[in-house]
């Protein structure tokens, strides 16, 4: 939606508005931007929404579109392909980065040429990119705090093979042409099984093999069991030697401290606070704050 606002002058020529994965469009809180976009489109346009599932966010999107939208739902269950190996490593939260760095150090031995690391927040994405760069790892980061031009540049470096590892949030990776990769790492376990399926679907495409490794802490156990129930497959244990993994723990802890200081220096912390403030103000102005709170309570009670 933010990118669409840049080319809003061309909207008078639009005859069709097509939104793929429409159930995810409002995940990043783009409701106000979409409202403006819809108002600028010709009323004679045809709106087409495509989604795997009907959600409350999608119902909001249909209401925002004003004119009656054509909605296509194609839910066939959330399944993963047989050629995908799904593994986990059960760890303490305080050594999560240590295990991640160890796995990345073994990419060549594992025959992995390219990997995507999925995280849940922009903050984690930025911090991890700084940490890995401090350890001389070649990575690109993709999150919504970055301008679209910087996101596309990061993606180009990854697609062209300049860097073998891409760090990404779910929202930032949506709608971008990310190629098939050999390995997907779930640094953070997603809240919903559908997000897990979308993530690991970046590998093991077109009949080829692929590997997905999930870093699981004690707080993630219920989420993992829910994912296994939905996809109908139990994850296998990722084998690694603990003494080998922890050999560089001091070096990695130091790199994390340096990365945290760099985040303060580059103004990320202030940008994050300002963005949260703007989001809350927008929601409050539109009377959506209570609605969103009720939605979260419903989601918690449904678990």
Automatic annotation (TrEMBL):
Residues 1-22 form the signal peptide. Keywords: ATP-binding, Helicase, Hydrolase, Nucleotide-binding, Signal. It holds the Pfam family Helicase_C. Residues 289-303 have a biased composition (Basic residues). Residues 1-72 form the Helicase ATP-binding domain. Residues 99-246 form the Helicase C-terminal domain. GO terms for cellular component: cytosol. Belongs to the DEAD box helicase family. This is DEAD-box ATP-dependent RNA helicase 36-like. The lineage of its organism: Eukaryota, Viridiplantae, Streptophyta, Embryophyta, Tracheophyta.
């Amino acid at each position: 939606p933010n990118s669409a606002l840049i080319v809003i002058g061309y909207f008078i020529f639009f005859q069709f508005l097509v939104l793929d994965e429409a159930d995810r469009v409002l995940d990043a809180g783009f409701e106000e931007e979409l409202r403006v976009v819809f108002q600028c489109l010709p009323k004679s346009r045809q709106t087409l929404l495509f989604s795997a599932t009907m959600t409350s966010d999608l119902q909001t999107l249909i209401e925002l579109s004003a004119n009656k939208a054509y909605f296509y739902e194609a839910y066939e269950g959330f399944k993963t392909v047989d050629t995908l190996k799904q593994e986990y490593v059960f760890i303490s939260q305080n050594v999560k980065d240590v295990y991640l760095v160890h796995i990345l150090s073994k990419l060549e031995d594992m025959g992995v040429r390219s990997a995507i690391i999925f995280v849940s927040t922009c903050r984690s994405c930025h911090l991890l990119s700084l940490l890995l760069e401090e350890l001389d790892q070649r990575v690109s980061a993709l999150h919504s705090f970055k301008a679209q031009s910087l996101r596309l540049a990061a993606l180009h470096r990854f697609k062209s093979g300049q860097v073998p590892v891409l760090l990404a949030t779910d929202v930032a990776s949506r709608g971008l042409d990310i190629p098939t990769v050999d390995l997907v790492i779930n640094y953070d376990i997603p809240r919903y099984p559908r997000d897990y399926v979308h993530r690991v679907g970046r590998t093991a495409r077109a009949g080829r093999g692929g590997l997905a490794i999930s870093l699981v802490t004690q707080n993630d156990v219920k989420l993992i069991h829910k994912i296994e129930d939905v996809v109908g497959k139990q994850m296998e244990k990722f084998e690694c030697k603990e003494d080998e993994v922890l050999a560089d723990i001091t070096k990695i802890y130091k790199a994390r401290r340096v990365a945290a200081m760099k985040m303060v220096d580059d103004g990320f912390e202030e940008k994050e606070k300002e963005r949260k403030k703007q989001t809350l103000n927008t929601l409050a102005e539109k009377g959506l704050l209570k609605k969103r709170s009720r939605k979260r309570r419903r989601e918690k009670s449904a678990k």
